[in-house]
């Protein structure tokens, strides 16, 4: 069973205004946020402090975030920023609309053209 994180809605974190929670899982939560400096919506994944402060997690988080930030591909969500502090670890990504794959599949199977798209 997942224990809910403290809701950070309407808080500002390093220049990002957290607006609403989009989803929550075992490692943390994802928020829709706004970056006023460049006037864009982003998604911020907030990873729980209990994970973000483990030495092995820190090593893997830093290495993976640096690797993902260098990737550019149509099917990879761009990573704009990341950081870690005692309250958690944060990944700032492009905000994608349209719901989750799980939501889409719950409406029924895709036909061939939709699956190809």
Based on the model shown, name its key terms.
single chain, 117 residues, alpha+beta, 6-stranded antiparallel beta sheet, 6 strands, 35% strand
Structure description:
By secondary structure, the protein is an alpha+beta fold. It has one domain (12-116): Phosphorylase Kinase, domain 1. The protein contains 4 helices and 6 strands. The chain has a 6-stranded antiparallel beta sheet. Strand 1 and strand 2 (16-24) form a beta hairpin. The radius of gyration is 16 Å and the shape is globular. The mean pLDDT is 89.
Question: How is the topology of this model organized?
Answer:
Elements: E1 12-13, E2 16-24, E3 28-35, E4 40-47, H1 49-52, H2 55-70, E5 79-85, E6 88-94, H3 101-106, H4 112-116
Antiparallel strand pairs: 1-2, 2-3, 3-4, 4-6, 5-6
Unreliable segments of 5+ consecutive residues? none
Mean pLDDT reading: 89
Going by CATH, what is the homologous superfamily? Phosphorylase Kinase, domain 1
How many separate domains?
Answer: 1
Secondary-structure element string:
EEEEHHEEHH
Q: Pairing-aware structural class of the strands and helices?
A: alpha+beta
Sheet with most strands: strand arrangement: 1-2-3-4-6-5
The percentage helix is 25-40%
CATH level 1 class label: Alpha Beta
Largest sheet, described in full?
A: 6 strands, antiparallel
> How many helices does DSSP assign?
4
Radius of gyration: 16 Å
Q: Report the strand count.
A: 6
Based on CA inertia axes, which overall geometry fits?
A: globular
Short structural description:
The chain has 117 residues and is of the alpha+beta class. Helix content is 26%, strand content 35%.
């Amino acid at each position: 069973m997942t224990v809910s994180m403290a809701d950070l809605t309407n808080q500002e974190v390093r220049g990002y205004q957290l607006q609403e929670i989009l989803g929550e899982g075992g490692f943390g939560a994802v928020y829709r946020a706004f970056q006023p400096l460049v006037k864009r919506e982003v998604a911020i994944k907030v990873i729980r402090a209990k994970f973000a402060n483990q030495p092995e997690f820190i090593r893997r988080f830093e290495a993976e975030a640096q690797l993902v930030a260098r990737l550019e591909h149509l099917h990879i969500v761009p990573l704009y920023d990341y950081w870690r502090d005692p309250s958690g670890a944060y990944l700032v990504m492009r905000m994608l609309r349209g719901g989750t794959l799980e939501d889409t599949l719950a409406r029924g199977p895709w036909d061939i053209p939709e699956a190809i798209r």
